Amino acid sequence: xxxxxxxxxxxxxxxxxxxxxxxxxxxxxxxxxxxxxxxxxxxxxxxxxxxxxxxxxxxxxxxxxxxxxxxxxxxxxxxxxxxxxxxxxxxxxxxxxxxxxxxxxxxxxxxxxxxxxxxxxxxxxxxxxxxxxxxxxxxxxxxxxxxxxxxxxxxxxxxxxxxxxxxxxxxxxxxxxxxxxxxxxxxxxxxxxxxxxxxxxxxxxxxxxxxxxxxxxxxxxxxxxxxxxxxxxxxxxxxxxxxxxxxxxxxxxxxxxxxxxxxxxxxxxxxxxxxxxxxxxxxxxxxxxxxxxxxxxxxxxxxxxxxxxxxxxxxxxxxxxxxxxxxxxxxxxxxxxxxxxxxxxxxxxxxxxxxxxxxxxxxxxxxxxxxxxxxxxxxxxxxxxxxxxxxxxxxxxxxxxxxxxxxxxxxxxxxxxxxxxxxxxxxxxxxxxxxxxxxxxxxxxxxxxxxxxxxxxxxxxxxxxxxxxxxxxxxxxxxxxxxxxxxxxxxxxxxxxxxxx
Length: 501
Known about the structure:
It comes from Sphingomonas kyeonggiensis. Belongs to the GatB/GatE family. GatB subfamily. This protein has helices spanning 65-77, 179-196, 235-254, 300-308, 314-325, 329-336, 339-355, 360-382, 393-404, 410-423, 427-434, 442-455, 457-464, 471-481, 488-500, and strands spanning 8-10, 13-26, 85-86, 89-92, 102-105, 115-120, 130-142, 146-148, 157-159, 166-172, 208-217, 227-232, 262-267, 272-278, 288-289, 296-297. It has 501 residues and is α+β, with helices and mostly antiparallel strands. The protein has 3 domains: 7-305, no CATH class; 312-434, no CATH class; 442-500, Arc Repressor Mutant, subunit A (Orthogonal Bundle), CATH 1.10.10.410. The strands form 4 sheets. Strands 1, 2, 6, 7, 10, 11, 12, 13 and 14 form a 9-stranded mixed β-sheet that branches. The protein has a 3-stranded antiparallel β-sheet with strand order 5-4-15, with no helix packed on it. A two-stranded antiparallel sheet has the order 3-16. The N and C termini lie far apart (66 Å).
């Protein structure tokens, strides 16, 4: 395991931070964990609530098999132990948005046991600085509702749309030692969830959020008392929470105080964490097996179906891109860091390989470079993403093919691409309608070169006198005169002959 060198400098010397994350990931499903109510984001308050979610008397929960399946697939994707026998427990506490008065969870016998995730802090060489973060468990539980404090001057309203939504709580071991490691772990976990399709990972919509456990110690000493900062909803905020809370703890300890085990909240506007409540021990929740639910018993056929349904995962895809497609480590890592990007690239590559008469590796490298530089640059400028891109993978492949076969020069390809972004038209249509084909007509190019030399006798004399750097000047003038449509290779060849004359 790679050891982190991140330290907090206090008045009494260096301190090490110890981090664990409890990630709540909403399971992708068309219904809640124990009812058939919908789970779509942004619905009107209390419009997605069944009698079961509202805890009406006599209602009995029934597990949603798809939610169980997705949690099992997630466990398999991180190499975790899948427990064929698991059980639901009641976690008893009162809160206004918890209509049952308890939460159905899994404390003693979770669905998924120990697993691991490999992270890297080196974008250019993901294999060079790898650290393994242990996963303690994944258990399935139901979410609570939501209190709304801004709808009335003196009252709080309750929205139960989220009540009963299926969550996977993915609990890491305290293996992270820096904000960067915590950020890398959360990013990698989110990527895996998106590849598997078990969670959309949209932290801004609340479908994935992290409870951040932080403690500090002198390097190599026993673990200190930890705090838990609840419901942090972005990778950047998780990293900020780690740094801010760790520094706060160091200051408290060095001032002679003690860290209290408690639940805290992160305020991104003030850049601070603040106390929310003292941290309850497990016995305070009065856990006991849920009497309305039988234990889950999974058979081998179900597990095999789950395993067979898994896609190629990020690390395996990245290695394949490097080894089979010849992509650089950086490009391969960037393309595979997000499932949507990888799918877009593979659609681009498949179409490019179909229409270009070139080797797959050559097509792959050109496709990767164009996607990561030209397309990403344009989308950032337009404040769009791949989902809203004006250019489809098929259109991108056609543009690259026209550049590869010499129809478009580099400058012309960029010009056509800009028109594609504005109009949504295909590259071939733009080339035909606007006459933007590259020309290799030697007679036409020779005539333009002769004219350029006649207009610039001084530069011609200097070049022939030994100032060879002026060659670029003549290339530029020729390309400008031909509106960028001349084949650069032909221009270079004919210019050398003319200038030598």
